[in-house]
């Protein structure tokens, strides 16, 4: 299948998952994860209507984003009055503090803020740039040691996390808009439903305790489990393989 057909099938699956829980597909943003794929592939995805793209590594994303902007600039000229013509770049992979300055320069949203230290670094950089940037807080709901994110396995972990959230909400330059998680790799998507449900519950707790933030986004769900994530409240799904095909290393 071609890329346009792949996007159409993913959008149909999103619509069906939304219908099962009485949601509108407009509530779910499709983020096409283009890591390891070329700028040409991203430009092709743009041509078939995608506007949100996710990258995992800053060093790969910086030159790619520049090339993509060059490739689609002529298309955007004719659409300049339309907000739908604008591309939004999401950093969905782990971010090291030493790479934060480059990330601030090229990304529009960072999903993977997993410490007060990183949030503070981003806050100072965004203030230097003269604007406020949306971020999501990454949560290690499953407790896997291989996963990044704020640890939430114990009562003590959650108590520390609440204090960290309060500290991050007080930082200028960043605007917390929700939570993100990466579910374990499992054979059946149903096996990770509890991970997504837990993140949904955590967002509810935070919305009650810290109503000054919007908490509007839950970034969860990838190619193998995004329908279950949508049923559990996802507002952003991060889809790579189902759109672009298997990555080079797979």
Could you list some keywords that capture this structure?
250 residues; 9 helices; TIM Barrel
Give a written overview of the molecule.
- The protein is of the alpha/beta class and 250 residues long.
- The protein has one domain: Alanine racemase (TIM Barrel, Alpha-Beta Barrel), CATH 3.20.20.10.
- It is built from nine helices and nine strands.
- The chain has helices at 3-20, 39-47, 58-77, 100-106, 116-129, 155-169, 193-209, 226-231, 241-244, and strands spanning 29-33, 52-55, 88-91, 109-113, 133-140, 150-151, 174-180, 217-219, 236-239.
- Strands 1, 2, 3, 4, 5, 6, 7, 8 and 9 form a nine-stranded parallel β-sheet that branches.
- Helix 2 (39-47) runs parallel beside helix 3 (58-77).
- It is globular and about 50 Å long.
